[in-house]
Amino acid sequence: MAKVLLFFANDTEECEALITADLLYRANIDVTIAAVGGSLQLVSSHKVKITADVLAEDVNPADYDMLVLPGGWPGTQNLEQCPAVIGAVTYFAQAGKPIAAICAAPSILGHMGLLAGKRATSFVSFRQELTGAEVLDTEVVTDGNITTSFGLGGAIPFGLELVRILKGQETADKVREAVQYRH
User: What pTM value is reported for the model?
Assistant: First the structure.
């Protein structure tokens, strides 16, 4: 079974994280929500309380097939300031494993130099942070091992793209139909 590591910090945009996790679960993909900030108890950007599965510093990135960074502000900043998150992103980049980021979170990849020469997107006010990328104004962009999306409005197509990457188009189509997404 494919395994996804999804980081969640205080002030993360909960819908970007949870819609993505939901769609992955529906495809029979295991998702581990890793808490940034030293506590399993987190509060999202819209004051939704979340209980994570594990602390970020306790995960071994090698155990996962994909890494997901949800956005939100200052949730993205909280993710970027966490050594465990940066270490995991670095591991995934060096291993060529899939990395996905939505909304403000692609800025982390831009700051790390991982978008140089790639096509990418993000929330409009963070596009200048996509250092070296060809920035597209579209819902979801996959270029090599990196998938980015522009925000909450792209969360369903983002999640379906991650399902496609891990389990193929047929499974993504089944999940799309199951949730009645007809875009």
Answer: 0.98
